[in-house]
């Protein structure tokens, strides 16, 4: 009877441990966007300037940034990815911002004129030096139409 009781509890403990391992493997790792970044996107605005001739798509995207920490953040780069109405990446635009001083704000504008594509709402990513030359990257919130 005692041997049966011990085997039962060993089986229960094994099942619980296996369940915990399965749940931890199935749970996605914390995304980089969950981390607090020293750079805050105050606002991002996307404007479509309509199509030009031959189905081209003109537009601008303006991003307002602010350094929230008391030290200078350097190595800042912004990358904007343009997607067509079929969700295919059409073009990638990049700008090097350099550095933002403590509490400093900066407004960055991207302009494009893409031929034969209808551009939908773009995505943008901000990269900066987190520790020394180690880069940290996060995706900004989806821009507003205004």
Written description of the protein model:
The chain is of the alpha+beta class and 146 residues long. Helix content is 17%, strand content 49%. The chain has 1 helix and 8 strands. The strands form 2 sheets. It has a 4-stranded mixed β-sheet with strand order 5-2-1-8, with no helix packed on it. A hairpin with an 8-residue loop joins strand 1 and strand 2. The longest helix is centred in the N-terminal third of the chain and has 25 residues. About 7% of the residues have low confidence.
**What's the end-to-end separation, in Å?**
75 Å
Which runs of at least 5 residues are low in confidence (pLDDT < 50)? 25-34
Radius of gyration: 24 Å
How much is the average pLDDT? 80
User: What's the total count of β strands?
Assistant: 8
Described by strand count, sense and barrel closure, the largest sheet is:
4 strands, mixed
Globally, the shape reads flat
Structural class: alpha+beta
The total of helices stands at 1
């Amino acid at each position: 009877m005692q041997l049966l009781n011990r085997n039962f509890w060993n089986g229960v403990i094994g099942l619980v441990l296996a369940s915990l391992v399965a749940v931890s493997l199935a749970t996605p790792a914390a995304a980089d966007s969950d981390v607090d970044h020293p750079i805050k996107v105050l606002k991002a605005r996307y404007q479509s300037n309509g199509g030009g001739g031959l189905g081209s798509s003109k537009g601008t995207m303006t991003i307002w940034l602010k350094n929230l920490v008391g030290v200078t953040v350097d190595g800042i780069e912004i990358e904007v990815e343009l997607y067509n109405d079929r969700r295919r990446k059409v073009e990638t635009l990049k700008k090097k911002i350099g550095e933002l001083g403590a509490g400093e704000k900066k407004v960055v504008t991207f302009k494009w004129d893409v031929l034969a594509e209808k551009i939908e709402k773009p995505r943008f990513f901000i990269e900066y030096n987190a520790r020394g030359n180690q880069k940290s990257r996060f995706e900004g919130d989806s821009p507003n139409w205004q």
